[in-house]
Design goal:
The complex is a heterodimer.
Chain A lengths: L6 H28 L4 H9 L18 H14 L1 H20 L2 H13 L4 E4 L15 E5 L2 E12 L6 E7 L9 E7 L5 E3 L13 E12 L3 E2 L5 H37 L1 E2 L2 E2 L4 H29 L6 H31 L5 H9 L8 H17 L3
Parallel strand pairs in A: 1-4
Antiparallel strand pairs in A: 2-3, 3-7, 4-5, 5-8, 6-7, 9-10
Chain B lengths: L3 E6 L2 E3 L5 E2 L6 E2 L5 E3 L3 H15 L1 E8 L5 H10 L3 E5 L9 H13 L6 E5 L10 H9 L3 E5 L4 E3 L2 E7 L4 E7 L2 E5 L11 H9 L3 E3 L39 H14 L10
Parallel strand pairs in B: 1-6, 1-8, 6-7, 7-14, 8-13, 9-13
Antiparallel strand pairs in B: 2-5, 3-4, 10-11, 11-12
Chain lengths: 385, 270
Amino acid sequence: MDYFLSEEQQMIKELAAQIAREKVRPAAAELDEREEFPREILKVLAQSDLFGVWIPEEYGGLGGGIFEQCLVVEELSKACGGVAVSYAASALGSVPILLFGNEEQKKKYLPLVASGEALAAFALTEAEAGSDAGGLRTTARLEGDVYILNGVKQWITNGGEADLYTVIALTDPSKGIRGASAFIVEKDAPGLSFGPKERKMGIRSSATTEVIFQDCPVPRENLLGRPGQGFLAAMATLDRTRPGIGAQAVGIGTGALEAALQFARERRQFGQPIASFQAIQHKLADMATRLEAARALVYAVARMIDAGQKDISMAAAMAKTFASDVAMEAAVEAVQIMGGYGYMRDYPVEKMMRDVKVTQIYEGTNEIQRNIIAQELIKRAAKGR
Amino acid sequence: MRALRIIVCIKQVPHPDEAKVDPETGLVIRDGVPMVLNPNDYFAIEESLRLKETGGGEGVAMTMGPPAAEAVLREAISLGVDDGVLLCHRSFAGADTLATAYALARGIECLGGYDLVLTGSRSTDGETGQVGPQIAEFLGIPHAAELIRPVEVEGDHLLAWHQTDYGQELLQMPLPALLTVAKGMNEPRLPSLRGKMRAKKQAITVWGPEEIKADPDRIGLAGSPTRMLETTLPARKTRSKMLEGSLAEQVAALLHELADMLPGKAGGRP
């Protein structure tokens, strides 16, 4: 399919594909096996300017947006979902600064993210606050010119590896979620520590840890937006980064399709390649069709966001949900097509099946996404739109 | 380290994985094969970029070839080289290594000053490894082939470790000098997005024989004394022999077989 990429977007896609092919794919299985953070690959991505694609030129970026970020994430995901999410989490951590940061904050932090010098992370989830953000417990108490943070964030992608953390904490616990605020916390802040790396099913090269605040002082100037805007900042950010999860899913699903297709053409049973059997052909056809539909939806929503559309929550939720469901299905089918080989760790698809599962879970479970979609539908119907 | 003006001579070649040899004529089939930057040239480009990063300066890529060869200059620019010069004219066609080296040397002299010339060790299509050293001879500068460690520059001379048939040698040479860079001596970088964008827009200098003040008798086919009489594919001789017995017996038999194949032995290599 032709998505009418600009010359620059085509370049971004090709460069990301080259890095995926030459640097990520050869390393993916070992990084997964050893649960090793892909530091060297992120360095290559930084040198190639790819951390700058979603950041405006005035802050050291290349002036692209969510769409360009999706192009990179998709290409990297074809080779390794773990590497892709480590990259994408830097967007998740920096988008709140783009959206809610003042000029000084943007000038201070965004160039570091754009150059890849600083990796970013986003810290919202807690043990009691997953789908229900109302369960937030982390607090930020203003004392003079500093906020003192206390609490534990859970399952934070790039935890311990990132240099910058966008953290949602309660500045006014009496107001519940309306009393939440967003902060930029630098890695070397006193009182900031990290839990051990979580042992995950998939995306195992990515780092997922607790982020722990014990009387951690954060300068007042690191407050993003106004006090009480934290939840708004988090939701506005997730609306813009969910297409990236869709792109990750489409990438992993496409990687699985490509592996299954190649296998089906080479594997012979009953004297012929298994690709000649209709049962296999129909699986491949369905995988390809659904993945293409998911890609089209992800791209359309990403472009809609970059065009500055206001009502994006429903569309972003649709892109994330549809793409992750379709990709999960494609990965399972890829394993099925490859049979016993697909189940073995010597072939890439079992990893893809493990990796892609999380896209149905993180950045809001698909069940929460369906709530968002349905609520918006009902709201619009009530308004007669 | 001081700032250097480095010229990197590169070449466009048929994609090594896709190029096939015509068994009838013994020539490389170029039709329909994508053209790429000679894989060995990436190491020379990388060394030029490293020198620029450590000591400052400027890098210029130069190649001789048809208009389409501009693509390899743009690739070099996307990696971080500053400028590209294409020697391109009908009269350059049919050049052997001598005429190629002459034209490149003329081109380099017309660039107005340089400190170091780097080339890949050899091209994957010609595989002669002659052009680099020949350029140095035309320019009248010292050279070393197969650089294996990063160059060190001290004042007006450089220190270069290079591989010879007999071992490794450390040479000190005055600048300007020419080095051919061994495959695998560094890890060539990938292009950057800004580099790719710059490469797309950048103007490439195109020079013909007049611009480089070349003697018409020394370029192209006219300047090429080499005549290719015949090209043949090496006959592929593979023998296989199954060893039998216990593992220990097989290992012993294998050692005997290998010993017999050593140079100087009957049936061994000359």
